[in-house]
Amino acid sequence: MRQAEGLCLLEQGVRDFGVIRFVGAPRAPLRLELLGHREVFADGAVGLYRVAPPWHPAHPATAELGTTEQRAGSAVLIADPLATRVLMALYEGYETRVEHAAWYGGDAAIRIGNEHLRGQYEAFARCLEDVTARGWSMYERTRIEYPSDKTELSEADRTRLRQVAEYVLADPAVTRVFVDGHTDDVGPDYANLALSKRRAEQVAAFLESSGVPAKRLVVRYHGSKYPVAAGDTDADRAENRRTTVRLERDWGGGDVASR
Fold it and tell me: In terms of residue numbers, what domain contains 170?
């Protein structure tokens, strides 16, 4: 197991073929790459099977894990959820057999053993936890700022919110997304409450259009009730004109209200 910049890599050699590599990254599903030092497979579907070796209690059981499409001359790339099925089968002591038509005719198969994988698995899991935690620190809280009396999102805001949405979609442990609208103290309370509502709803609508399920969104609006800067200067009021996006993740702890 090794860690590249922002990536966790679990690699194992495959006899007479090359290398398999599990690749994990924040905001991305697990990926399995079969990197051969020679061309083996033709175009078409590749089948992956879980095989109990002779020393396994389930021997001689065989079960299909799934299929993936292959283009001749390229590496075999296996996406989630099939990549995770293969990883867990290897961790549980099974072998994986990869079967497909060979480019030279007939059938081809490679065997992926688990001889060296189990010892690397725990380090790989710790690496994934680490990169997830660092990804979490980048997207847990987001702040959108506004000119006076405005609700429009800038292009930079939209880019940031798309990134937040991508993280939410990639991390199944994110349970809720809190969107809180705020204003400065200029103007009557009823107008500020309505303005903060429009700000929060626009941000929530953009997140939903970017793929965040509506059931995970919690939209709230507060007018000028919760300032983060207590003064009445232009700079203080600019600080208070905001919509915040806070992610809640299932760490096993309780919720803390966002302000």
Answer: 140-249
Number of independent structural domains in the chain: 2
**CATH number for the domain including 58?**
2.60.40.2540
What residues have CB less than 8 Å from 77, skipping those under 6 apart?
A: 31, 32, 33, 34, 68
For residues 84 and 105, membership in a common domain is answered with yes
- Closest by CA position to 30, among listed 10, 50, 45: 10
Q: Which amino acid is at 38?
A: R
CA-only gyration radius of the chain, Å: 25
Q: pTM, whole model, 2 decimals?
A: 0.55
- Residues 97-102 have a mean pLDDT of 78
Find tokens 């007018």 and name the residue.
223
Contact predicate 117/9, CB 8 Å: no
Q: Are residues 92 and 32 in the same domain?
A: yes
Per DSSP, helices labelled H in 62-143 are 82-91, 117-139
| Least confident span in 105-109, 138-142, 232-236, 237-241 | 105-109
State the Cα–Cα distance between residues 102 and 72, nearest whole angstrom: 9
Could you tell me whether strands 62-70 and 107-112 are parallel, antiparallel, or unpaired per DSSP bridges? unpaired
- 68-97 mean pLDDT: 86
Which stretch of 19-28, 83-92, 135-144, 178-187 has the lowest confidence by average pLDDT?
Answer: 19-28
DSSP summary character for residue 181: E
Residues 15 and 128 placed together within one structural domain of the fold: yes
Among residues 112, 101, 29, the alpha carbon closest in space to that of 72 is found at 101
